[in-house]
Amino acid sequence: MGKRKQQQKQEDEESEEETTPTKMEVEEESDQEEEEESGEESGEEADENGEGNDETNNNASDEEVGGEEDKEEDEQKQEEEAPKVKQIPSDGSYRNKQRCLVFSTRGVTSRHRHLLADLRRLMPHHKKDAKLDIKGKLQVVNEIAEMKSCNGVLFLEARKRLDLYLWAARAPQGPSAKFLVNNVHTMDELRLTGNALLGSRPFLAFDAKFQTSPHWQLIKSLLGITFGTPRGHPKSKPFIDRVMSFAIADGKVWVRNFQILDQADGGKVERAAEKSGNLDELTSLVEIGPRFVLTPIRIFDGSFGGATLYQNPAFVSPNAARAQKRRKKGLKYTDRQIAKTTSKERAQSNVMPKTGLEMQTVFSG
């Protein structure tokens, strides 16, 4: 019995070995299955790629056209989504520290001296100095401005007690501009009804012609920095109740000063203007003075000197104008002398010749 059981066990083990595959066979079968699956997948991918290439070729032109529109839309979205800059209200502190030196040379007339006083009233950020008695050496003005801690200069130069020149400069590096001052009318002389608060800040109204050429733009910047009162200056008032206008006519700058007069008092006039929609009628301008005309002569690169950036070709100096008037008067004298000699010659040429029939010859015998 024991031998039979052993023989049956051996036969069962041999049959199991024949039916169960070995490890090598299992691995070979798995490799074949993977190769078949990868071949099928690669075929499907090739088909998909072929179809995709056809679609990309067909839609290439559409994407190029629509790409620009998408970019514009993205830019608009970015601008809309960009964080807005917070507008912080001004605290009125004195940050733009501008100081302007305002003085003149010796030899100014009373009218010029009154004009200088009026300009100082209009500029609460000015600084004074004694009259300059050095002729021709204007570079000294830069040293005086440095001593006074001024970065701007408004200098009146008088010549022959007749002509007045105005210099507007940025010290010490420049630029600077030289003007001839004409038609000066001071505040006391005009006796105008306008009256603004002393030390108030002005609106600066410039003509549109200041943007037509570079030299007018430079003159605009110089005048704006010189006459514009910086915000928060200790000697200025936190009010704006006047306007300084700078207009260009005939190649000259016409300067005038006005008061802003507001008639909005809450009465009948204001209510009637609100109903009609003409609120501009409530605000008007009343001239204060002074008024004067500036003729540009030359613009320099530096302060009171340097390279010439612009020179007015139509400018005629006052000396040349006066000399021309004297020549005209001298021509009148010469014309009178010529007229006398021609009248004498004419009288001599009109003498009647002797014919023998004169009274003396007829009754002599």
Structure keywords:
365 residues, eleven-stranded mixed β-sheet, 11 strands
Structure description:
One of its GO terms (cellular component) is nucleolus. Residues 98-305 form the Brix domain. Residues 1-93 are annotated as: Disordered. GO terms for molecular function: rRNA binding. Keywords: Nucleus, Ribosome biogenesis. This protein has 365 residues and is of the alpha+beta class. The chain has a domain at 100-319: Brix domain (Rossmann fold, 3-Layer(aba) Sandwich). It is built from 9 helices and 11 strands. Strands 1, 2, 3, 4, 5, 6, 7, 8, 9, 10 and 11 form an 11-stranded mixed β-sheet that branches. Strand 10 (291-302) and strand 11 (305-311) form a beta hairpin. The longest helix has 59 residues, at 23-81. The relative contact order is 0.09.
What is the number of strand segments?
A: 11
Q: Indicate the proportion of strand residues.
A: 15-25%
Name given to the CATH homologous superfamily of the domain at 100-319: Brix domain
What structural category arises from helix and sheet content? alpha+beta
- Principal-axis shape equals elongated
Q: What is the average of the pLDDT values?
A: 81
The number of distinct helices, counting runs of at least 4 residues, comes to 9
Rg, rounded, reads 49 Å
The parts where pLDDT drops under 50 for at least 5 residues are 17-26
- The end-to-end distance, rounded to whole angstroms, is 223 Å
Order of helices and strands: HHEHEHEEEHEHEEHEEEHH
Largest sheet: 11 strands, mixed
GO biological process, one term: ribosomal large subunit assembly
GO molecular function: rRNA binding
GO cellular component, one term: nucleolus
Subcellular location: Nucleus, Nucleolus
